[in-house]
Structure formats: structure tokens, C-alpha cells
Amino acid sequence: MNRKDPHRALPLVSASGGRREGDPPGRRRWAAIEDPLPLESGIRLPGVRLAYETWGQRAADGSNAVLVLHALTGDSHVAGPAGPGHPTPGWWDALVGPGRALDTDRWFVVAPNVLGGCRGSTGPSSPGPDGTPWGSLFPYLSVRDQVTAEAALADVLGIDRWAAVIGGSMGGMRALEWAVSRPDRTGSLLVLAAPAAASADQIAWGSVQIGAIRSDPGWRGGDYHRAPPGEGPHRGLGQARRIAHITYRSEPELDSRFGGDAQPGEEPAHGGRYRVESYLDHHAEKLVRRFDAGSYVTLTEAMNGHDVGRGRGGIARALGRAELPALVAGVDSDRLYPLAQQERLAALLPGADTARTVASPYGHDGFLIETDQVGALVRELLAPLPQPRTAPVPTPASPLT
What we know:
This protein is α/β, with parallel strands linked by helices and 401 residues long. The chain contains eleven helices and twelve strands. The protein has helices at 143-157, 170-181, 200-214, 234-248, 251-258, 275-288, 293-304, 315-319, 339-348, 366-369, 371-382; strands spanning 29-32, 37-38, 44-45, 49-55, 58-59, 65-69, 108-112, 164-168, 189-192, 326-331, 356-358, 392-393.
């Protein structure tokens, strides 16, 4: 018997799993960026809007605002249950709320969906100037461009300076870029499981994921958003997720969970799968239902280009600009962004001491899973900061509803 296609046909789903106009808004709100956004490439991106969520109340002077930045396939839904408008529960739910590390009785927590994303912010699947999806016409973005958009969001919200900027993985890249490019607007910094610049190994992993998506016939050069259900680049996006997920977990964890066992009821010698294959298939199928392939490519390209030292005299000189309190932490079993990268980063940041270690068997995903340890780091970062100087006021009205 021939072995089954390892990519496995996915159920019929919309060409893009990203959020569509008319879907329930959930908790998110929108901010419109009135002027075209200047990008590093020299392009000016028109019609930008960012989806965001908030928790707590903003002090009148904005002094209690904390910016939380998500990873590659995350979104603005840091806390709260799954439900209409939110296909997954909050990705750091245990950290946000009264009495928690991000104590909403004290802090005004803001989490945007990244520029280029697909959960409400402007990206390849959102309408372009002619009203049709941007698709292949969506421009290349850098991490710096994404932070430029987030700075514009802060302006809309009336926040001159964040009390803290916190992020892990891709969110950690953006948090670090905030500290380097806008130290006057970054009160303190927590970078988790992220480097100062993408390494050749990390670029290689990202590039093969991009290649998997672009090699899918359903990719259609990036202009697939109006294709019928089941005819989008689902196989390519699913394969990209399989590749990525291997790097997100550790070899010992995968081996202890699955070993070389066959999936129950299947026999690999007769076309069936191993348990670890079934696990990867499961994560692939989940992602294609909630994410857009164009956003995956756009965001991965931005991560591949991450380098805080580019055009700034190198990494050490660039990091020297960030003279502010900082914590840097990595996961001891992370094989995608190894702890040694965070140790080098901490050594170069003026306001950081030695890198902290999140002990976890789960690899890179440990920064999402080990919420007790991460919560302790957040508390340590925020504890020395002063209480808001003025009484809280309601969040400013969103320019878009």
C-alpha cells in the first residue's frame, strides 16, 4: 500500500483563515492611522488601521499604560475566553487581570494586532485602496515598520510613553525595537525568547516555511483571497506550521510524548501516521482555520529581516541607545532562539543585568506555557515603577467601531 500524503488534505475552509469584514468584533477595537504610514522601503502605506484590545483603565496622563506584543500567529486577544470574534482563548490569560502580574487594577494594558497580521489590522487579506484584498500588492514590512504603526496607535490613545513594553518571540523583537528606536517612549522593557538580530539558522527556518506556502498552487502569486473554499494555499500554510512547530518544541519533549509510536488505529508501514505526525497535522489544521497565508509570509519575512543594528553602527551601538530598565529572559530548552542569544542581548543592554532563565521542557513555546515564571518576571519589571499620578479615566474612543 502506498504511504498516505504526509501533507494530508485539509477540510474545505475559506481561502483565508484570517478575520473578514463583518465577522464579530469580539473585544477588539480599531484605530485608524490618518496619514499614509512611512515604511523603511520608502513606500507610504495608506489606509492603515490597527485592531487592539485593552484591559484596565488609562490614567489621565497615560502613565500606567503597558504595551504587550504578540508572537507570529498570536493576536490582540491576550486575555479572555474564546468566543465570537476570538477563535482561541487569550494567549497569556493567566497574566492579565486584577491581582495578576499585569494587574488591571493598576495598569492599563494595551495589545495590538501587528501590522501585516490578519486578525483585524491592515495586512494582505484586508481591503486595499480599490476595496479588494491587498494580496500580492501588500508591501514588504520590517519590524521597524510594525513599531512605527504601534507608535501611531499610542498617539491615537494619547500615550506619550509606555510604562513598560513587553513581548516574546516576534513580540520580543518589536519590544526591543521600541527600546532602541524610541527610548524616550519606552519606560521599561521585557524581552522574552528573542534575539537582537535574526541568525542564519533562524532565517533558514523561516525561508523554508515561506517556500512551502509559495510553492502551493493555491497561493496564486499571493492573490488567492477570493478563491472558493478549499482552494486557498492550505497545504502550504499547513506545512509551514508543521515545520515551525517542530522548532517551537524541544526534542526531549517530543520524544517523551510520542517516541516512535504509531497513531492509534494507524500503521505507518501501511500508509498510516506516527503519533508525532498526527500531532503536527492537528496544529496545521488549527492554524489554517484561523490564519492567513499572506500574513504568515509577510510576518515571517519581517522576522527574517530583524536586526536592531542595521544602519545604526551595529548591534552593540544600537543597543547602547536603550538606556532604560530592562529584563531579558530565554527558555533553557529553546532550540529556535537559544538562550545564548538572550545572554548576549542582556550583556549589551545598558539597563539589563544577566539574562534570566525560564526553565521548561517545552522549548520556545515555554514563554507562552510557563506563565508562573513569566509572571514573576513581569512583576519584577513593574514593581519599581511608581503608581499612576492621576485618577483613571475611560479609554479614549476608537476612531473606528
